[in-house]
Automatic annotation (TrEMBL):
Residues 25-383 form the AMP-dependent synthetase/ligase domain. InterPro entries: AMP-bd_C, AMP-bd_C_sf, AMP-binding_CS, AMP-dep_synth/lig_dom, ANL_N_sf, ATP-dep_AMP-bd_enzyme. Coiled coil: none annotated. PROSITE patterns: AMP_BINDING. This is Class I adenylate-forming enzyme family protein. Gene3D superfamilies: 3.30.300.30, N-terminal domain of ligase-like (3.40.50.12780). It holds the Pfam family AMP-binding_C.
């Protein structure tokens, strides 16, 4: 029978908050190397804290974390924030120039990286000390640290718990710097405090009803706030995170849910487009699955319907969030999905959402305005960007950049990103409405609409789609379908069928890349 560890150190430190619930013998992480218990995770964290201490880092220094989702990544993340340092997760899919820029923007003093990433980004990392996953090789991750004898990593003399277990953390201290996805501009470094992490984590656990028996399949990267929230919530309840790094072959995820008896699945719209229309997910019963989470952009209502039908025994949670809000801002209770079709719901516990006009006044029911958010999970701002912080974090709360309407019950319906509206023939057209209409054609897998400069229309609507393997649907078929559902001014001027839509590192459609491609094809800059 396993015993739960005594709570040690400072509960205001997010790392200890996350890791205190799991019993030593319970499985914390499943990755390509196998299962890793909470005892092994705590030992790995202690080893990495000692390695960081050996580099002479001071509390508040920033440490980048680079690599694929893995047991090492989880231990590295907890070690950094547990030691009173600031974690700076970076995408291993970025270019070396992007990594160098982000390390500079974050003013990083060291890097924790797996060996593959360390080799691949050697030039970008060279100015900084790099601790790679070899530090865990040979370390006896067997629970010894519970008795005060922390296993030593090769080349390091390790004091018990690195001498850091009893430090006191100010909840307002920064714990993590999360980079925005950069869909409309260059990424910004969002400051996330210990208090932000703990508040958002407790709120998500409450409305999802997570328990220690839950096992989440993680297909999202941990450097993305949504992916990180899966780590936070499941470690906090003493559950298990099962890592899937092969979503390029999405059927693998379906197989892994079944093999690992996963109870929770989380994805962005592009994830569910593939699962529903390219894999066996919609035909295969997965009885272990009890919670399906969707966030990271609007999933077309027709696909939400398909998602509910695919695994009818599971509760589907449609959610809405932003990096600047730590992760989640709102959700729709599963029992309200049909009545509030297309809504992102109301604020999660501890968050208040309002829809406001350009002058800051709350809008009337049915009127358009921008969503603002207030709550303990809202970031204090961007690192080193006072102007950007002042523009985004206002006296009314966090400006989300999303235009929406609110109904008589207080449910919010996002119309579109403000930057994604298409101005055509004197109308402001929601790109999401065009995409949702297109996706009602069952042969399509994904769709993205953008505006392209046009002398007559101002902007012409250009629609990019991908289709099911083996389908013979062509651009004319898609246009005919759109004409049957949309007003004349909303019908795309052109349709292009692509093998895949460009995605950013977080799995969201990169509309800037589509705009660049469209402009280049038209000979524009």
């Amino acid at each position: 029978m396993s015993s739960r560890p005594a709570v040690r150190g400072d509960r205001s430190n997010a790392a200890r908050f996350f890791a205190e619930r799991g019993a030593d013998a319970d499985v914390a992480v499943v990755d390509a190397a196998g299962e890793h218990t909470y005892a092994q995770l705590r030992d790995a964290v202690a080893v990495l804290e000692a390695a960081l201490a050996a580099e002479g880092l001071r509390e508040g220094d920033r440490v980048a974390i680079l690599g694929r989702n893995s047991f090492f990544w989880v231990a590295a993340y907890l070690a950094v924030i547990g030691a009173g340092l600031v974690a700076v997760p970076c995408s291993e899919k970025a270019t070396p120039a992007d990594i160098a820029r982000n390390l500079g923007l974050g003013e990083c003093r060291a890097v924790l990286a797996d060996r593959l990433a360390a080799r691949g980004f050697d030039d970008a990392l060279r100015p900084l000390p790099v601790i790679d996953d070899a530090v865990l090789d040979g370390a006896a991750l067997d629970g010894a640290s519970r008795n005060g004898a922390v296993p030593a990593a090769p080349g390091h003399a390790v004091p018990a718990a690195s001498g850091r277990a009893e430090r006191v953390t100010d909840p307002a201290d920064d714990a993590v710097l999360m980079f925005t996805s950069g869909t409309t501009s260059r990424p910004k470094a969002v400051r996330i405090t210990h208090a932000n992490l703990m508040a958002n984590t407790e709120s998500i656990i409450a409305y999802l009803g997570l328990t220690a028996s839950d096992r989440v399949l993680v297909i999202l990267p941990f450097y993305y706030c949504y992916g990180a929230s899966l780590l936070h919530t499941h470690l906090r309840v003493g559950g298990t995170v099962v890592l899937c790094n092969t979503f390029a072959y999405p059927e693998t995820a379906v197989e892994q849910i079944a093999a690992e008896q996963c109870t929770v699945l989380a994805g962005v719209p592009s994830s569910y487009q593939l699962l529903l229309r390219v894999t066996t997910f919609a035909q295969r019963r997965l009885p272990s699955l009890r919670i399906v989470q969707q966030a990271g952009g609007k999933l077309s209502p027709v696909l939400v319907d398909e998602l509910i039908a695919a695994q009818p025994h599971a509760n589907v949670f449609v959610m809405y969030g932003q990096t600047e809000a730590t992760a989640r801002l709102s959700y729709v209770p599963p029992e309200m999905l049909e009545a509030k079709r297309g809504s992102v719901g109301k604020g999660i516990p501890g968050v208040e959402l309002t829809v406001r006009s350009a002058t800051g006044e709350p809008v009337a029911v049915g009127e358009r305005g921008e969503i603002y958010a207030v709550g303990e999970s809202i970031s204090p701002g961007y690192l080193g960007d006072r102007e950007g912080t002042a523009a985004k974090f206002t006296p009314y709360g966090l400006r989300t950049g999303d235009l929406a309407v609110v109904d008589e019950d207080g449910y919010i319906f996002v119309v579109d990103r403000i930057d994604d509206f298409i101005k055509t023939w004197g109308y402001r057209v929601s790109s999401q409405e065009v995409e949702s209409a297109a996706l009602r054609l069952a042969e399509l897998v994904s769709a993205a609409a953008i505006g392209v400069p046009d002398e007559d229309a101002g902007e012409a609507i250009s629609l990019f789609v991908t289709i099911r393997p083996g389908s013979d649907v062509g651009p004319d078929d898609v246009l005919a379908h759109c004409r049957s559902l949309l007003a004349k001014h909303m019908v795309p001027a052109s349709v292009q069928i692509l093998q895949t839509l460009p995605l950013n590192a977080n799995g969201k459609v990169d509309k800037n890349a589509l705009r660049r491609a469209a402009y280049a094809a038209a000979g524009q800059s």
